[in-house]
Amino acid sequence: MKHFDSLRDWLAWQESLHPLIIDLGLERVTKVFHDLNPNYIKPPTITVAGTNGKGSCIATLEAIYRAQGYHVGAYTSPHILSYNERIKIDGKPVSDELICAAFAKIEAVRGNTSLSYFEFGTLAAFELFTQAEVDVQLLEVGLGGRLDAVNIIDPDVALISSIGIDHVDWLGDTREAIGWEKAGVFRTAIPAIIGDLAPPVSLAQSAMDKNTPMYCIGQDFDYKRQQTGWDWLSGDRCIHLPNPALKGEHQYRNAASVIFAIISLAQRLPVSEIAMQQGLTNVQLSGRFQLIEGEIPVLLDVGHNPEAVKTLVDYLKNTFPEKRIHAVFSMMKDKDIASVLEIMNPVVYDWFFAPLANHRAATEVMMQRIFSQSSVARVSFGFSDFSQAYQTAKSQSQQGDLLLVFGSFLLVSDCLINLRKSELTK
Fold first, then answer.
1. Comparing C-alpha atoms, which of 335, 392, 387, 381 is closest to residue 360?
2. Which of 67, 188, 270, 312 reaches 20 to 30 Å from 358, CA-CA?
3. pTM above 0.90, yes or no
């Protein structure tokens, strides 16, 4: 049985423990969970699945429930700056000490059962939420839904934010196949809320098969922008709300879905309209259309699939129509990089490839080949790291331009670390 004193050591060991980085399936993690929690008492639970928008939905749910005064646990992935961001209690990342203690407890009961890095983290989140006696737990599905470790917990509300093409090696290469995987979080008689404007038929079929009541944006609930704020609408009910602090048209769809989820749980967890208003105004989330003001402003976004970058293009056109955009860019090699380039190219003036220190990241050779086959005219290579690519892009920018850092979570992390260092050295 292993024991480590530091979180860094625990995580390094977990990365080497299981033969597969991603190993979908619930049998192993379910066994360890039951050994860990033989008398588990589940708090009210909202599980959020989807291709894009999961993190925004969790952050908005968390902000609204906290505004109401509830004790809230939120589990998300991946993190941007520190692993602790994945497990939050009342908006604060839990400490290294608490996570290490949870890992030690998991290690003590798992025996010969192999667990992946993600499964260790998921079990640790459940353990820490139980210890803290949270009033509500918000669980973000890491990958898919049906076989993701989060799905060992039965939700009281399931929310699917959107369905797009991503993770095709594990989930399939059509929206119908991906929808079926994500519908794995549905349960009999438990409401499923769909924030996708054109949901695949597989969601409705799965809901019918499981006798799951399904509620779709544009049909069962909707939103309407007003001169001041927006209206949430369902049947005869109308709630007037302030504009979400998170930017982009898609955040109205996310917020509308979140409000429906909260109302679906209102008998167990009542929430006032004032708390909804406060939560929408106060919600914060790194790396989603995150603007850092300066002589040359910097926009950060973790969009890394075609659906996400279509949303990014719309936002750039609406918010920065006159700006010349310099993109510092990198992605994981299993993503649809070619499609992302074609979608983004009309709004990007020039590109700077920033290499990432991760074996899953696209290499410079791979990126050169993809760029050469694209319609991109101006792209720069040959940088040793993010900092060099970023500084070159900045040096070629003029007042009135915009620096866009987008693609991988790891790239946005590198940028925030870089900006933090430069602030400290001023």
1. 335
2. 312
3. yes
Q: How far apart are CA 249 and CA 227, in angstroms?
A: 15
Residue with tokens 């990241």: 361
What pLDDT was estimated at residue 131?
97
What local confidence, expressed as pLDDT, does residue 173 receive?
65
Q: Can you give the pLDDT at residue 16?
A: 84
pLDDT at 142: 84
Both structure tokens of 398: 């003029």
Q: Which residues of the chain have pLDDT under 50?
A: 426
Concatenated DSSP letters for 80-136?
SS-GGGGEEETTEEPPHHHHHHHHHHHHHHHTT----HHHHHHHHHHHHHHHHT-SE
Beta bridge partners of 384: none
Instruction: Answer yes or no: are the C-beta atoms of 81 and 410 closer than 8 Å.
Output: no
Task: State the architecture of 290-424 in CATH terms.
Answer: Alpha-Beta Complex (3.90)
pLDDT in tens, 142-190: 877 788 899 999 999 999 999 876 555 555 568 888 898 899 999 999 9
In sign, the C-alpha dihedral spanning 32, 36, 41, 45 is: negative
Distances (CA, A) of 276 to 67, 68, 236, 261, 281: 8, 8, 19, 12, 9
Neighbours of 256 (CB within 10 A): 26
What is the strand order of the sheet 92-93 is part of?
Answer: 92-93, 87-89, 72-75, 136-140, 45-49, 157-160, 192-194, 214-216
pLDDT value for 104: 97
pLDDT of the residue at 181:
87
* pLDDT computed for residue 23 by the predictor: 61
CA atoms within 13 A of residue 195's CA, in its CB half-sphere: 29
Q: Write down the domain spans for the chain.
A: 7-282, 290-424
In CATH, what number does 7-282 get? 3.40.1190.10
CA distances from 313 to 190, 263, 321 (A): 36, 32, 10
Identity of the amino acid at 94? V
